[in-house]
């Protein structure tokens, strides 16, 4: 299998037939409401997606291949094998099998992954990459799967993949597979920050002492006021495991956020700012204080508000 080089100037990145963005996923709130008999935790989460993320390119090829570039490319697994195998390759193989079982051709493909998002960061990087792979390959191969079948295939890759397939504001329930669109959620200006410390999601859940927390409930008031009443139930155990989360949350909050919170199982934290200009200024300040960490100003998808209070 061709792995390519890990430099940012990979020729394939510019020569691909088509591209897909794998946007960062942000859990604006995450409540753990129970646990199933099989051990999976039940969640309620308000999820949105950023206008930045990883980027994947796809091209016809004589044989399957994958290449990498980007700041975090060196941290990626390059094999499909094992529990922690590369999700892009797993998504390619699962989609190909599903199509071939239907008698549909799925010829060799060269994939390039520009890895811009931190790894194991609570913003769905691997899941977003898998979802973008499914979308991109269906476009390249000019095929489709019924939405329900595609969601099941995505769920087999990871609990976050079905929501990443949609990449729109939504409420996720169950283990992440019960999705309800939130068309009224506004576009938000955020700064994402990560101390580049990987976090084990199973490790966070093992530290979670309360697993039957209150659900999110219905929207009450404006979105910012409503989000302030909510929480991320994984944040306390994550803070106890990764002390840098305290620091990065405090640094972001000191820039004048309307709300600061951790996303997913961490260690990425986000701050909501009243404007994108304010978010960009905060990002510059934070990069000056901690240049070795990851900070990114983003806009999320959603309705563009006249003004955020």
UniProtKB/TrEMBL annotation:
Its EC number is 2.7.1.148. GO terms for molecular function: 4-(cytidine 5'-diphospho)-2-C-methyl-D-erythritol kinase activity; ATP binding. One of its GO terms (biological process) is isopentenyl diphosphate biosynthetic process, methylerythritol 4-phosphate pathway. Catalyzes the phosphorylation of the position 2 hydroxy group of 4-diphosphocytidyl-2C-methyl-D-erythritol. It catalyses: 4-CDP-2-C-methyl-D-erythritol + ATP = 4-CDP-2-C-methyl-D-erythritol 2-phosphate + ADP + H(+). This is 4-diphosphocytidyl-2-C-methyl-D-erythritol kinase. ATP binds at residues 118-128. The active site is at 25, 160. Residues 86-165 form the GHMP kinase N-terminal domain. Keywords: ATP-binding, Isoprene biosynthesis, Kinase, Nucleotide-binding, Transferase. The keyword Transferase applies. It is an enzyme of class 2 (transferase). Pathway: Isoprenoid biosynthesis; isopentenyl diphosphate biosynthesis via DXP pathway; isopentenyl diphosphate from 1-deoxy-D-xylulose 5-phosphate: step 3/6. It comes from the Bacteria. It holds the Pfam family GHMP_kinases_N. Residues 220-287 form the GHMP kinase C-terminal domain.
């Amino acid at each position: 299998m061709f792995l390519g080089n890990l430099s940012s100037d990979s020729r394939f990145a510019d020569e691909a037939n088509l591209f897909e963005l794998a946007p960062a996923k942000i859990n604006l709130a995450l409540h753990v409401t129970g646990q199933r008999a099989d051990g999976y935790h039940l969640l309620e989460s308000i999820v949105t997606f950023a206008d930045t993320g990883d980027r994947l390119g796809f091209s016809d090829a004589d044989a399957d291949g994958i290449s990498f570039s980007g700041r975090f490319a060196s941290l990626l697994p390059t094999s499909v094998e094992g529990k922690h195998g590369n999700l892009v390759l797993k998504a390619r193989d699962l989609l190909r099998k599903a199509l071939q079982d239907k008698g549909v051709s799925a010829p060799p493909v060269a994939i390039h992954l520009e890895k811009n998002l931190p790894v194991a960061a609570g913003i769905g990087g691997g899941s977003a990459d898998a979802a973008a792979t499914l979308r991109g390959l269906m476009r390249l191969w000019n095929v489709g799967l019924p939405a329900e079948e595609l969601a099941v295939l995505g769920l087999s890759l990871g609990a976050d993949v079905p929501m990443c397939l949609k990449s729109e504001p939504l409420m996720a329930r169950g283990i992440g597979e019960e999705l309800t669109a939130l068309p009224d959620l506004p576009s938000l200006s955020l700064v994402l920050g990560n101390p580049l410390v990987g976090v084990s999601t199973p490790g966070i859940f093992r530290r979670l002492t309360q697993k039957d927390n209150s659900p999110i409930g219905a929207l009450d008031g404006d979105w910012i006021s409503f989000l302030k009443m909510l929480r991320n139930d994984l944040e306390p155990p994550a803070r106890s495991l990764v002390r840098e989360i305290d620091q990065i949350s405090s640094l972001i909050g000191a820039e004048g956020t309307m709300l600061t919170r951790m996303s997913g199982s961490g260690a990425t934290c986000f701050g909501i700012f009243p404007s994108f200009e304010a978010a960009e200024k905060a990002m510059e300040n934070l990069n000056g204080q901690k240049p070795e960490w990851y900070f990114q100003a983003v806009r999320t998808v959603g309705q563009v508000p006249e003004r955020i209070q």
